[in-house]
Design a protein that fits this description.
The chain is an alpha/beta fold. The chain has one domain: STAS domain (Transcription Regulator spoIIAA, 2-Layer Sandwich), CATH 3.30.750. A 3-stranded parallel beta sheet has the order 1-2-3, with helices on one face. Strand 2, helix 2 and strand 3 form a beta-alpha-beta unit. Helix 1 packs parallel to helix 2. 20% of the residues are buried. This is STAS domain protein. Pfam families: STAS_2 (PF13466). It comes from Stieleria bergensis. InterPro entries: MlaB-like_STAS, STAS_dom, STAS_dom_sf.
């Protein structure tokens, strides 16, 4: 019997190419340790294309594992950004 685990990762400030390595390490650890990962974006100010690409790749990997990655507490601007990029399926 497998026990499902979940994790919430809080993203804060701005996430862009300058912070991509830190973001990738945090996300990778959460993905490895948990079945379902939620990213709390309540304190996230912005993301750039490199972070959006990282989130899409992580979501794809979680889908292949039949687990989930979702984004919560998004600002209207981030919701619009995800919608324009076709990544609105990540909004949880």
């Amino acid at each position: 019997m497998a026990i499902e685990t979940s994790a919430t990762l809080c993203l804060t400030g701005g996430r862009d190419l300058a912070s991509i390595n830190e973001t990738q390490q945090l996300l990778q650890q959460a993905i490895e340790d948990s079945d379902d990962v939620a990213l709390d974006c309540s304190d996230l100010q912005f993301i750039d294309a490199s972070v959006l690409q990282l989130l899409l790749a992580a979501a794809h990997a979680k889908t292949k594992q039949e687990t989930t990655l979702s984004l919560a507490n998004l600002s209207d601007e981030l919701i619009a950004c995800l919608g324009q990029s076709g990544a609105d399926h990540l909004i949880g």
